[in-house]
## 1
Amino acid sequence: MIGWILATLMVFADVCSDLMLSRGMKQVGTRIDLTFGNLVRVPVLMLRNSSTLAAIGLSALHFFAFLALLSFWDLSIVIPIGALVFVLGTAAARLVLEERVPPLRWIGVCLIALGVAIATAN
């Protein structure tokens, strides 16, 4: 039971981290040029942005849930379950960030979900 709780925490923390990081970077600026001034300015802006800070915290939560999960399950199970991030992340990008997701990408997401189901079947 604890393994499933950790797996759920790991996946949802990763998806939420990706959402917050995407939102935060769009708030920091679009199409950042790699000039010396921006190499200094952008990290400062990122560290002042609440969305990117939340993303860092959620990434840490994902990492520690992943570590804990490895003490319960084999890596060959944890990695495919972690791939659910691609499925849920795409759906969340569409619903929360209102991104356009073309049909071919949805087909790819469905194939990933099928792969997870096959890989985790006993």
## 2
Amino acid sequence: MWVAVLASRLLVAISAAVAAAALPVTKSYRAPRGKLVPGISHPFGHGWLSGALDAVFTPLVRWDGLWYLEISHHGYTPSGLVPNNPGARPAFFPLYPLLVHALGGWAGNGATLVVATLLSLGAFTVGLLIVHRLATLELGPRAAKAAVLVIAFWPAGAFFSAPYTESLFLAVSAGAFLAARGDRWWLAGLLGAAASATRNTGVLLVIPLLVMYLYGPRSTPAPHAQPATGWRRWSPRFPVRRDILWLALVPLGLVAYSLYLQAEVGNWQAWRTVQTEFGRPHITTPITTIHLALTGVYHALRGGWEGIVYDPNILDALALVILIIAIVGMARRLPLPYTVWTVVAVTPPLVTPFLGEALRSLPRFMAVLFPIAMWLGYELTRHRRLLVPWLVVSGAMLVATTVAFTLWYPFV
């Protein structure tokens, strides 16, 4: 597992650093208008040491990462990022920037970036350890090792190294599953609350956790128990005990943030309403979103090789195909709560299409859905010849998307 962590993070760091050093579009003066934040984008100043720190830590300070760093150091007011910049800080949930601030981000902008990066890398490592444990319980040790590799080299895996919430969300959501798997419902509720304070989809964890409570194992099996063969191995669990009430903790992260927004900006729903500022103006059906996505793919293909290479609709469509296949496979192989979590977690992006790129960020959203990696790990080890080709292709895509992200392409 440690090899997967080190190799994948080095691959991301080197790809981003080389792209930032070699290509002029990564320079701050070429950043998209309104996205350069003085003191945040390049916070280390001048000199050889500052230059070295800048080369290591700043290549992945892009897009949402700027918002999280700004919030970590300066809070939620004023609402915008810089003058005349659209968007609003309430769209970004508080646990990650709060932890960054508490762990040393208060010391200055440079400290904020260093702490945020280390927090992302640390949470990523913890998340992989938890996923490895879950996959071992459900599918066996060989599938667990492969699942860790799938996440580590996921095509959108650069976000696990960036000042984004992906790593933290992976750790707390997988941790909630592992706690529930061992009947530690108080811990599952607390980690679920942390998830709902990290991302808006975190509150949906209450659904698979409730399913796991009502339909699942009573306790963690012995270390050498036979691997799971699918949802049929579990059974309804009645009568319901009082410890089910711990699951009421899950929405508390969202509730606390909503109360804070009501006091701070006068709108407890601001985390939802400001999404219109980020290109998601309306709610529709998944069918409509998929139709819009296929239309985007059609126009990308009409653009020839340039459209195929540079249009993110292609990557989004590929992610959608993998998602659909994975959901079908998980329903056959994994216990029911894992499939439920994947379905409910991808529903928000499927009903809120992004303008011009309906499935924007879908590869990133899928990166934290550990049941997909668990199922893929099982299938790739069952067909042994597929694991290495998958990792080669996925690693190449990881390099490409890391470079694209460093170059300010909107693969977010």
## 3
Amino acid sequence: MSVAGEIVVSALVVLGGVFCLLGSIGLARLPDVFMRLHGPGKATTLGVGCVALASVVHFSVRLNSPSLGGLLIILFVAITTPVSAHLVAKAALHRRLPQWRRDRDES
């Protein structure tokens, strides 16, 4: 594999790891269910997408032919993540879980 290909793959893997780390921190630190959906829903999707894209680039460069398996992973994650987040949010609304709110009397 060429040096340029290795740099691109390495950058995508590191970027994907950073996005996954940020999504995990958001899941742990945000105060309620509705805010916790945002961190993993956005950042982790980008993280998995970057790692799968790194896989596509790596195997396409190494085998000199397009590798489309990673693109299917990106497609399925991009489709299923919003659906699962929507279902979790609807379940939280149905159970009437408390939402974090700022004190509105601050002026």
